[in-house]
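hiii, so i know i said id send this last week but things got crazy w the move. better late than never?? heres the sequnce for the chain we talked about at the cafe, plus the structure i predicted for it. fair warning i was half asleep when i ran it
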Amino acid sequence: MKLQAREITNGLRFPEGPIVMPDGSVLVVEIEGARLMRCQMDGRREVVAELGGGPNGAALGPNNCVYVCNNGGFNWVYEEDGYTRPHGKADNYHNAGIQRVDLSTGAVQMLYTHCSTPGGDIPITGPNDIVFDGKGGFYFTDHGKSYDRLMDRGAVFYAAEDGSFIREVVFPMITPNGVGLSPDGNTLYASETETGRVWAWPIVSPGQVQKDPWPSPAGGRFIGGPTGYQRFDSMAIEANGNICVASLVAAGISVFSPEGGLLEFHEAPEPYCTNIAFGGPDMKTAYITLSGYGTLVAVDWPRPGLKLAY
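okay and structure toks below
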């Protein structure tokens, strides 16, 4: 089925990370624009903060702060019709890490750029998506970067909201992108872009998961894969536990059962359908970023989305 979308605003510079705010506005990051934006339902938008690098995913956290996955930036390809798409690690790559933005002041603070392990510091090279657990921390994916003939192996990390603690939760993954939590908070989900796979892990305590043995590549339970050539992007969870994954190329929103298997697919009108967030009084409005042409749209969703921790 095709998305029956209502345009909220356009002209954004590769929007991602939608956050539905209590006042009805929607915050998005602009990866190409390197800033956090507020979009009103009448199409107006304003700059909340200049972030630098490549802000890729975002989530509302405690104390009226937004936490941003900044991937350090991409190079860009600009088509004649205005279509924009990322192309590899930025020549001026910088600022990769987790940033915290105080919405009251616009102040930006870098919380995490590395994760310390017994084997040494692991640099965060391409953080992508983020979700809070309501227990003092958040999970985020590190998609990694590609360097000519080389590609980072990615991971999922868990970090404290106050910048005091970070640990690696899942490794290795191939371009991990979307991340989400089940309604009861007991299952971690993550999607991989280049494989088009969605994985699940039981959470045994904050920042620690139970892993399946080989042949699972990273200890996850396989939830589902693509229909045709799809590169999976970010995700949101429905109140009933279904997993909604945005996809690129054969673009749209794939809805997976938490038990595994594709339930339905909603086709998007352009190849860069990058993210989804739920809002509205009944949580049945899906806000979706169509990034190539810089558009934020709203869709009447058939089921309510899950209310997030903040």
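btw The mean pLDDT is 96. thought thatd interest u
miss u guys!!
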